[in-house]
Each structure stands twice: as C-alpha cells, then as structure tokens.
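re: that chain from earlier
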Amino acid sequence: MEFALWNRAAVMQLVECECGIRLSVRGIGNYLKRWGFTPQKPIKKAYGQRPEAVKNWLDNEYPAIEQRAKAEGAEIHWGDETAVVNTDVRGRSYAPVGKTPVAFAVGGTRQKLSMVATV
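^ sequence. v structure.
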C-alpha cells in the first residue's frame, strides 16, 4: 500500500491487510491519539531542495560576493519565484505530536500563475 499521507482510513486498511482485523475509523483515530499521533496538515516541500548546499554557499561563497558588491557600490538583489494554484491537495495526515509530515510537491495543477520578484 503506497500512501503519501496516512489518514485513519489508510491505517484501517493496513490493520485489516496485515492483521485481518477490521476496526472502525473512529477506533483507529482513538488508537492513533493514544499512541501520540495527531491529525496535521503537512508542509509542502519541493523535491529539489538542498538545504546543506545552500548553507554552505551562504557561509563560504556569499561573503566574498557581498564584499565585492560593497566595493563596487552595487546592490545585491535576492530573487524568488512562486506560484499560485487553485488547488491544495495536502489534506491531513496523522503524525507524532511535534513531527509535521511533509508532502512533496508534484505537478499537474489545473490553474497556475507563476511570479518572479527581487528584494
């Protein structure tokens, strides 16, 4: 069973497949709560993120760029891009308290507006 997010119905199906026991959705919710899981809306995260590489660049390469810009009287602009879509498919999933689940972003949205800006 492949689930991006675990909800009560998915856990109910897993228990039935693995143990041959059919529990109610409410019963599954009670067990999850007892085990320290809460329903949470996951954060959305892109597949291509590399936070370690970004930190390394900021710590080791960016200071020289900043010094050069200052010496030349130049401005540094940070660019960013975002998109607004008409759907939000993250839903809710159960996870341990304080451990927000992550839903990786995938394509296939119906309406999308992309924007680029600098600050």
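Strands lie at 37-40, 43-45, 79-85, 93-96, 102-104, 112-118.
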